[in-house]
Each structure stands twice: as C-alpha cells, then as structure tokens.
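Action item from last week, closing it out:
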Amino acid sequence: MINTLTERMRGLASLFWREVAKFGAVGGIAFVIDNGLTYYLMHGPMTDSEAKARFFGASVATVFSWIANRFWTFRHRRQDNVIREFVMFIIINGIGIGISTGFTALAKYSMGITDKNMLFLAGVAGILVATVVRFFAYRFLVFNKELDEEPEFSHDHEIIERHPHTQPGVRVPEPAVKDPELPGPPS
C-alpha cells in the first residue's frame, strides 16, 4: 500500500508540474500580450489613463489565455458546459484584472506615483500576485474535471480514503450466501 501510495503521489506531482509548466507558457505569452499592449497604450493613446490601459491590455490577454488554457493546458479537464466554463473563467480573470489594475491604481492614486515606468511595474507586481490566484482558481474552479476520470489516477480515492475492510483490527463479515435448497433469507 505504501508503494502504491508513493507511486500515486509521484504521478499527481508529475501531472501538477506538467500543468504548471503549460500554464506558465500560456501565462508567459499572455504576460507579453498584456504588458506590450499596456505599455503601448500608456505611452500612446491612453497616456493619462494608466489604469484603463492596464485593464484593456489584461482583457485582451484574458481572451487569449482562455483559448490557450482550454485547448492546451487543461484540455483534459474542460467542462462539457462551455458557457459555464467561460463565465467562470471571466469571473476569475475579472478578479485577476482587478488585482493588477488595483496595484496600478493604488500606486498612482494612493501613493502619488506619476512615473509611467513605476506605474507599469506596479501593474506587473499585480500580475504576479494575480497569477498565483488564477492558477489555483482555474485548476479547481474552471477546468475542474475530476482526477478520477483520468485512467492513471482512477483509483486514488481508494488509496487515500480508509474503508472499514482496510482498517487494522476491524473485521467486516462476509456476505452470507443463500443456499438454493433452503427457504427464506440467507443466515
């Protein structure tokens, strides 16, 4: 049982790190989209609206991120109800966008920072915080098909959960077999 549990834990850790690596790759591209667009907008069309520029850049990156995570990172965990999945994704990303935009707004309005590069870096710090929140929210709330549906992890719950017949010192009586020649229920 210990070897089986150890093998399952290794398998779960491997699956987790593969998902983290894919999530990181998607996140890296989304990071470039978000920050590239935000930087352009902050130094161009939205020069006096840094928080709005961050919001717009993050929104475009969110659409990319949903598509990439749905069809690559968590492709085996996609929900059958695409609308529900997308709505949950948008809600989670709304929270993430709120965090990154909030860091920019906090720096500008509460701390009085006016340097565009510092405001940009405040948004980047917000993105880093929001990324941790997003990963766990995506994994457990958006793309949340159970591990039991994956063949290599289909019996994990049996290893972790204790059943009466597997507990030391607890004897579960065998079911009685009915003798076809005797009337009534088995004894």
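Closing note: Helices lie at 2-42, 50-73, 82-110, 116-142, 156-160.
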